[in-house]
Amino acid sequence: MYKLLALDMDGTMLTSRKTISLATINAIDRVIKQGAAVTLCTGRGVAELKDYADELSGIPYGILNSGGCVYDFKTKRPISRTLLNDSILLKCIRAAREAAAMPYLLTEDASVAQQEDIRDVSVFQMGVYQPMYDRIATVVPDLETYVREHPGRSLKLCIYHRDPETREQTRRTVEHLDIQLTNAETTSLEVSPKNVTKALGLQILCRYLHISAHESIVVGDADNDIEVLKAAGLSVAMGNANERVKRQCDVVVSDNDHDGIVEVIDRFFK
Questions:
Q1: φ and ψ at residue 190, rounded to 5 degrees
Q2: What is the dihedral of CA 17, 18, 23, 26, to 10 degrees?
Q3: Could you give the count of Cα atoms lying within 13 Å of 19 in the half-sphere of its Cβ?
Q4: Domains of the chain, earliest start first
Q5: What's the chain's Rg over C-alpha atoms?
Q6: pTM for the whole structure
Q7: What is the pLDDT of residue 251?
Q8: The predicted structure's pLDDT at residue 270
Q9: Minimal CA–CA distance to 153: which of 65, 231, 58, 230?
Q10: By C-alpha distance, which of 89, 105, 65, 66 is closest to 174?
Q11: How far is CA 178 from CA 82, 188, 213, 245, in A?
Q12: For the chain, which residues score pLDDT lower than 70?
């Protein structure tokens, strides 16, 4: 019945230690061999997938940058991409600076952070990602200057705050702009082009594959998954998902440290 399995990464496919279990890898390989399509459905960009190149090598598609880029890993080319307006992006970076927050930019091929912010991201409630940032981030003195020198390349901006209250202040500062705002992690505010969501990415990929979104299963755990879960034929919440996500979903499975993805595959891909 289901022809597409769409998997969020952080909090879903990845364990709390940011690893992928062997059981999950094997189960995904089994789905692909059965003829179903599998896609990542993540806020991460291409650069942030490098640590998992071996584990993800069999997955053919990616809904990346929270829907800003739909990617074909077989051809190493985007199926679609939607860029942020640079002038609006600069306003959002300035708003981050005013909030003493950390702006983190995802471009077509890089993840970019300011030198003063990247030293200790635990200040912004993102300490679990410090090893990844240390390995893959392009570190620059000033993000505004970087955007001016690299125009027309930005897909998404994450603004990591020191606390949820400051995040809401930033949201109020920029919400009048022509952008899509989504809360993520504990204190992150994701800035995407207007109307760009994971749900849009799912629709684009389904058209590309000539299938209906009703033939898809989507698995997630956080607020930035809610729209794409609503668009799926079957919505699945991980056991570690927040209560808003669980209320939205058709099914709840085990958490990300106990192979919830394997449970999904065993139940719905025979």
A1: -95, 130
A2: -170
A3: 6
A4: 4-81+197-268 (3.40.50.1000), 86-193 (3.30.1240.10)
A5: 18
A6: 0.92
A7: 98
A8: 79
A9: 65
A10: 89
A11: 13, 19, 27, 26
A12: none
